[in-house]
Amino acid sequence: MSIRVNPNLYLESLADLSQTREAENTALQQVSTGLSVNTPSDNPAAAAANIGVQSELANIDQYTSNITSVSAQLQVGNSTLSSAVNLLNQAITYGTQGGDSNLTQANKDTLATQIQSIQSELVSLANTTYQGQYLFAGTANVQPFQTNADGSVSYEGDEGTNSAEVSPGTEVQTSLPGSQVFGAGSANVFTALTQLSTTLQSGGDVTTAMANLNAALNNVSNQQVFYGNAVSNLQNTQTYLNNDKVELSSQQNNLVGINTDTAISNLEQAETTRQAVLSAAGQIGQVSLLNYLPAPS
Amino acid sequence: MGGLSGITSIALSGLSVDEAALSVTSNNIANVNTPGYARETVEVAQSTPVNMGQITYGTGVTLQSVQSVQDHILNSRIADENSQQSQSQSYLSTMTQVETMFNDDSGTGLQSVLSSFYNSYSSLATDPTSTSLRESVLTAAQNLATAFNQDSTNLESISSSMDQQVSSDVSQVNSLSSQIAQLNTQIGQANATDSADSSSDTAGTLEDQRSQLVQTLSGLVGAQVNQTSNGMITVTTSNGSVLVAGDQSYKLDTETDPTTGHVQVYSQGTNITSSLSGGDIGGLIQARDQGISGVLSQLDTLAAGISDSVNAQSEAGYDMSGNPGQDLFTTPPEGNSGAAAGMAVNITDPSLIAAASTSAAGDGSNALAIAKLQSAALANGQSPVDSYSTLVSTLGNEVSEATTENTAQGLVLTQLQQQQSNECGVSLDEEAVNLIQYQQAYEASARVISTVQSLINTVMQMGGGS
Fold it and tell me: Are B129 and A135 in contact (CB under 8 A)?
């Protein structure tokens, strides 16, 4: 006698059915989410690596936002210093005029007044704020340049500078202290202007004052280069970040994504298998020998 | 024994054996879908012949016994596999719930709150005096703390729902144990009766019922079954605690541990929780005391690590008024246990955030230093994001291993059940054949009787004339 076979096929077909249903669910989920890793257990290593990639992507977004705000700040600094350079050039023009020995004292006084007004315009430029923050106060949170009773201008800020993260492991300095931008000692913009205007008022020789003013102008122009360079460096960094982001996204797609064609073909395959198992299960056990026995008469 | 009356009694024995066989067939057919039913067969033998002088006459047929087709070894392998599969099933279904809490692709994990938290400091460094950026830091810190709190609360609530499940499983185990003990008693008695009356198979039927109960029991907790005298069995848990011995059953008790708040299982006054394995209870305890507890302790370590490192850097800095920095987060508990549940933001005033590393209000270098803690190693040697991804990969691996194990056990179990069904299952084809066979035999015996009757009539007519 041959081995007795399982008379109850339902058990077997139930196991097959639940297996095909699971395959179908997985395939459906992949199509609808576009992901091959839908829970960490689908691929623990990829899920963990993806967390690293996601956090790098979040950082890139942060760097981009830092670059946007720092760039705006640096651009305001840059254009402020452009205006300052223009004003100083104007002051130098007036000073050169004042050096003309044919000028009357009244003319010299007029020039001195114009230079004083340039000075006060420069003070307000030096106190420029961006979103409530003084651009040239170092790290102090105070109005950096104060005009004193005697007309002199003093610096109330500090020598500190701030930096911001703009790419992994890279920080850029976001400002220069006002004392550096507007010069110290004889090259100080405000000292040089005061010196020029008082020399004109007293009818003295402007040569020294003009030399100091030129030195101050040179200093400001040099400092402006920092702002210009920083802005263009940030643009380069942004380009690098954009490329990095594309690369990370494709890495992410390789880790946890699935291409639509593959997902759909998986789904179709799962459906076909399931239909086959279903139709087979439908055939089971419909007949037994009992169907062929004559009804008892 | 010869003579016409002898022939009748031989035919009668055939009729009664065929009737019994038909009754067994009918019972098999009726129980075709009864869970745990093992088909029964009839054992028949020739009746003891009689010797009349030189000649030996047959005396008909005798029903030896009705036997239930049981394979005790197979049954116990099935119980074993069933128990392992139930364990991995209940472990898996719990850990799958846990896994969904850390699914960063669908936005449930900690990665985004972690990144947002550190990046809020990176933003603050670009404009350290900005109140709105300082508010954002507090919000991000609050979100981070809330995420840790919620994860911890969710894990605890899964654990306590498992406590309830353990309690209800234990009371089911107790009720099964006492039913098995009762059946043991009945089987012991039935075995005594059956040996007196060969046509009775009460014990077989009761054994079917009992093996079904053992099957259910092994789905709840790993059970070892040993046959003892008189067909009774002893049932012990996998760690050797007795559940049933002969006609006695022994209850398991549950008690809530006052420190952990989790249900513990006791047998005869001994806490056997950690040594229980197998079945739903084994899986629940494994998931609760190893799986969830492991995740919770990793969360605690991470929450404490982040709090400690951010607090230390905050203390090294200055707030917006130039005062030494205060802790951003409340100090985590000693030993970190409960750190995730208790994580909270320590300050509410945004100006108290220690963004400066000098007393200058506009300095943002300490904020930058805190932002960079994102990639600095915590006490466990890994950065916060790396610690978190380790947690996720560990969890993912546990679930994926359990899934593989569970699938494999399911296949083995199905195969064993098929094997059992091969041997013990009712086949309608077979029963149909039996039906025809016994019916024909019955008809033939009946024909013998009617033939004898006509012979007797012939004899009567010889005597009566007419």
Answer: no
